[in-house]
């Protein structure tokens, strides 16, 4: 597990770029599960990830709260889902994308995705508002996701906030 504080939108942009670069180096990890309260930054992180990929500037990133799934013509293509209103069953297009190794899947409110429907390799990112900005808690599932998280942690400029607290970016 890694904790990161994003103090600004610039930090979010930098982190999103690093995350998409790191995902390209670990192609077996194709799914990000995003969890957090309303307004915690799930869609903002997704927006910056989309913008950091080829084709992203042609995409209008919005929360898929009502459409359930948005497709973005990036390279790799992104399926962005919001499962908040899917307590019973996730949309079929999500399962099709999870089975397609070409897609990067970003799933908001993934607590509504059953454990048996999750892929073997994924990164779980919990977002939470805090005094310093946004606290991200990243947890890897699967050996490739663990390697991705180690790589990400090694590339993100960190310093200890204090002996007990999470790592935060260098100012």
From TrEMBL:
<dbReference type="Pfam" id="PF02367">
    <property type="entry name" value="TsaE"/>
</dbReference>
<keyword id="KW-0067">ATP-binding</keyword>
<dbReference type="GO" id="GO:0005737">
    <property type="term" value="C:cytoplasm"/>
</dbReference>
<keyword id="KW-0479">Metal-binding</keyword>
<dbReference type="GO" id="GO:0046872">
    <property type="term" value="F:metal ion binding"/>
</dbReference>
<dbReference type="InterPro" id="IPR003442">
    <property type="entry name" value="T6A_TsaE"/>
</dbReference>
<dbReference type="GO" id="GO:0005524">
    <property type="term" value="F:ATP binding"/>
</dbReference>
<keyword id="KW-0547">Nucleotide-binding</keyword>
<keyword id="KW-0819">tRNA processing</keyword>
<dbReference type="GO" id="GO:0002949">
    <property type="term" value="P:tRNA threonylcarbamoyladenosine modification"/>
</dbReference>
<dbReference type="InterPro" id="IPR027417">
    <property type="entry name" value="P-loop_NTPase"/>
</dbReference>
<comment type="similarity">
    <text>Belongs to the TsaE family.</text>
</comment>
<protein>
    <recommendedName>
        <fullName>tRNA threonylcarbamoyladenosine biosynthesis protein TsaE</fullName>
    </recommendedName>
</protein>
<keyword id="KW-0963">Cytoplasm</keyword>
<keyword id="KW-0460">Magnesium</keyword>
């Amino acid at each position: 597990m890694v904790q990161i504080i994003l103090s600004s939108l610039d930090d979010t942009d930098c982190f999103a770029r690093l995350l998409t670069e790191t995902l390209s180096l670990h192609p077996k990890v194709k799914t990000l599960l995003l969890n957090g309260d309303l307004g915690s930054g799930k869609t903002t992180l997704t927006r910056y990830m989309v913008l950091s990929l080829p084709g992203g500037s042609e995409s209008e990133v919005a929360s898929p709260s009502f459409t359930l799934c948005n497709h973005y013509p990036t390279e790799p293509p992104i399926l962005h889902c919001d499962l908040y209103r899917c307590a019973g069953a996730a949309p079929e297009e999500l399962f099709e994308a999870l089975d397609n190794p070409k897609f990067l899947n970003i799933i908001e409110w993934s607590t509504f995705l059953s454990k048996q429907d999750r892929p073997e390799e994924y990164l779980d990112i919990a977002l939470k508002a805090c005094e310093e900005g946004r606290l991200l808690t990243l947890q890897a599932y699967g050996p490739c996701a663990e390697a991705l998280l180690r790589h990400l942690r090694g590339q993100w400029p960190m310093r200890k906030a204090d002996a007990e607290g999470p790592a935060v970016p260098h100012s």
